[in-house]
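4.2 Preliminary Data

To establish feasibility before requesting continued support, the project team ran the inverse folding procedure on a target of 433 residues. The structure was first converted into the token representation described in Section 3, and no sequence information of any kind was made available to the design step. The complete token record follows.
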């Protein structure tokens, strides 16, 4: 795969993944096409040497792995981690509002949304709906309206004269509610969802919608942009960009050593869930592969996790926001993220493993350290390291406008990280002890 085809497939993946559910579905079908076998957590697992497998939880988290050898205790795993969720607006359970001549939806802010960027955008709705069929069976299906059906108009400057000098604060209860249509139109949200399920899934008959998990998203397509076509502009780069890179690295691995991709939900709100990095999903999978406590600990101590999440690129308009000696540039290489207060799990040894692979392959490496007078974000890296005790590197691709409805990354960086992660998946030696 060359860089152009890699990036075009990335754009398609981003467009096909408006929610974590859709992202996991897209990854699932890529794995099935590549010959991976789906496992069911409710069933007994039979793992064969040379096999390739994946398992999902909650439809929004996925773990895939290769088994070139079943001696996981002595082989360990080369792990690549990312998260499937992104900051967004989620539809509340009792969603319908009729106010001042318009039908609107009540929404809840999910994660650290850069809220003003959601104004004046063409929005659609996607997610998972759970319902009773006409046969009395409870089931769920994914839906995606795809078309622009909602918007949150800004208020005119004439009614907010100080907006450019004083800043614009968006009240998440009152001022971010999307408009769907005029109040003269009939509106039954359950009926709208039922019709959408029927439109997308002719194999089921809906008796009644019981619940849903729906997100709003920007319908503008992901794109290669810039005068010299150097940038990728898209929604949800944080962190579907890393999910895609990790997936492609897994698919391209030569399966010399057991390699595992872990993409979990709910990172943007702390990962504390049954399918999040701070939940039992990864440990449950590893313990089924290494049944005895002795084997489990041996496998973990012979493993390494590369936790891939986005990194703050040096913004030319906001250069003072960075430590100038640790300010990554777009298209100048992946970024090793370091924080001595353990907001990132990187240490000197995991840094050395990645740097050695990258530099020997001819790829640049950058380092990010947040300014000492600013708070530092975090990732699934320290959560996973703390949960299972695996040596971890936090790495990311330099990005502008993180948590905006539309983010910006470099065309070179994702492909370069992918190539290094392929080498990592084949790496025999980590740190000699």
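Position-by-position output of the design step:
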């Amino acid at each position: 795969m060359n860089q152009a085809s890699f990036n075009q497939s990335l754009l398609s993946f981003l467009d096909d993944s408006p929610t974590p559910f859709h992202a996991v579905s897209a990854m699932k079908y890529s794995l099935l096409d590549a010959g991976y076998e789906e496992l069911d957590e409710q069933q007994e697992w039979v793992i064969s040497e040379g096999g390739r497998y994946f398992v999902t939880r909650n439809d929004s988290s996925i773990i895939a792995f290769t088994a070139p050898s079943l001696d996981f205790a002595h082989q360990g795993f080369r792990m690549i981690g990312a998260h499937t969720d992104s900051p967004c607006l989620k539809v509340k359970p009792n969603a319908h509002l009729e106010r001042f001549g318009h039908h609107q939806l009540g929404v809840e802010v999910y994660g650290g949304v850069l809220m003003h960027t959601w104004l004046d955008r063409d929005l659609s709705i996607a997610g998972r709906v759970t319902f009773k069929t006409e046969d009395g069976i409870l089931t769920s299906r994914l839906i995606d309206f795809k078309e622009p059906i909602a918007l949150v108009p800004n208020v005119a400057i004439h009614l907010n004269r100080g907006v450019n000098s004083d800043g614009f604060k968006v009240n998440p209860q009152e001022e971010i509610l999307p408009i769907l249509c005029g109040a003269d139109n009939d509106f039954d949200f359950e009926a709208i969802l039922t019709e959408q399920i029927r439109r997308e899934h002719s194999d089921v008959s809906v008796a009644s919608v019981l619940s849903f998990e729906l997100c709003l998203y920007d319908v503008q397509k992901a794109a290669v942009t810039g005068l010299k076509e150097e940038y990728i502009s898209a929604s949800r780069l944080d962190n579907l960009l890393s999910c895609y890179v990790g997936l492609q690295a897994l698919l391209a691995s030569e399966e010399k050593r057991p390699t595992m991709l872990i993409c979990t939900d709910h990172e943007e709100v702390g990962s504390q869930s049954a399918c999040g990095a701070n939940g039992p999903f990864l440990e449950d999978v590893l313990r089924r592969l290494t049944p005895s406590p002795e084997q489990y600990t041996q496998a973990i101590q012979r493993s390494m996790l590369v936790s891939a999440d986005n990194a703050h690129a040096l913004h030319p308009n906001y250069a003072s926001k960075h430590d100038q000696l640790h300010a990554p540039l777009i298209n100048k290489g992946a970024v090793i993220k370091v924080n001595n207060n353990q907001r990132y799990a990187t240490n000197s040894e995991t840094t050395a493993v990645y740097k050695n692979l990258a530099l020997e392959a001819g790829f640049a490496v950058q380092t990010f350290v947040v300014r000492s007078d600013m708070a530092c974000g975090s990732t699934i890296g320290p959560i996973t390291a703390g949960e299972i005790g695996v040596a971890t590197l936090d790495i990311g691709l330099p990005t502008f406008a993180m948590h905006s409805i539309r983010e910006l990354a470099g065309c070179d960086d994702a492909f370069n990280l992918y190539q290094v992660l392929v080498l990592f998946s084949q790496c025999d030696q980590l740190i000699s002890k």
